[in-house]
Amino acid sequence: MHETILETTGLSKEFLGFKAVSDVSLKVRRGSIHGLIGPNGAGKTTCFNLLTKFLPPTHGAIRFDGRDITSLKPADVARLGLVRSFQISAVFPHLTVLENVRVALQRERGASFDFWRSDAVLRRYDARARELLEDVGLSGYAHLTAGQLPYGRKRALEIATTLALDPVMMLLDEPTAGMTAEDVDRIVALVKRVAEGRTVLMVEHNLKVVEGLCDTITVLTRGRVLAEGGYAEVSRNPEVIAAYLGADPGISGGQAHG
Questions:
Q1: Among candidates 133, 130, 122, 47, which has minimal Cα distance to 84?
Q2: Bridge partners, residue 184, by sequence
Q3: In 10 A of CB 142, how many CB atoms?
Q4: Which of 164, 198, 225 is the endpoint of a domain?
Q5: 20 to 30 Å CA-CA from 48: which of 20, 181, 219, 225?
Q6: The CATH number of the domain where 229 resides is what?
Q7: Same domain? 176 vs 240
Q8: Tell me: the pLDDT tens digits for 88-108?
Q9: What are the two backbone dihedrals, phi and then psi, of residue 94, each rounded to the nearest 5 degrees?
C-alpha cells in the first residue's frame, strides 16, 4: 500500500492560451487531511476539477492509489473511491433527509437509482442511512425534507451522501463557505470525525479552519504551487504573506476567497 494516495505530476490546464493551472505537482499522504488554499484566482477550483475529472488536463498526469486516472471519467474515479462532496449534493430538496441518503446508498445496486421501486424494497437501506445520519449529527432531521434544512445542516447532509459512497478519499470543496460561526465549528468537528480511516483533500477559504484541520497545506497562486507544509510553516512564508495580504505580518485566522 502506497503512502501517497493521490499524486499529480506537471498538472496543467489552459483555456484559450490562459494557464489556469501550471505544472502542479502534488502529493497527498494516505490518511491525512490536506488543504488546498490560495488567494482569489489562484487556480484552486480548476485544480479540484482536474483531480475529480470534471475537466481534462492539458498536460500532466494524475495517479490515485497507485493507478493512473488521468483519462478516466468522473463516475469511474468515484467508483475507485475518490469522491467529491457535491457529486450527489443533489440534495434532492423534495425528498426527506433519510431518502436523500438512501438514494446515495443505492450505488450498491449499480448505476440504477430505483425511484419507482416499492418502498418496502428501498427500506432495506434505512438502517445504514440512519447510521450515516447519526455520524453527521442529523438523526433528528431524518423526517424533514432536505429543502427545510438550514444551510449548515444541508452541508452535513451532502457529506452524509458522500459517505454513502464509501469513499477511500473525500474531496471537500469549501465545506464551511457561507456558514455561521456555530455551523463552522460543527462542520470542522464533523470533518475530523469522518476523516478517521480516510484521506481528505479540501479547498477551504477560512484559514482558521485550515489551521485547525489540515496536516499539510499546499498554497496555490496564479495556477502554481507557491508553498507547501504545515500551517505554522506556510503562514510564516514571506511569499505566502505577500500573496494574501501584501505586507501584513501574518495570515493566521484570515480568509481568502476563490
A1: 47
A2: none
A3: 17
A4: 164
A5: 181
A6: 3.40.50.300
A7: yes
A8: 455 789 999 999 999 888 865
A9: -95, 0
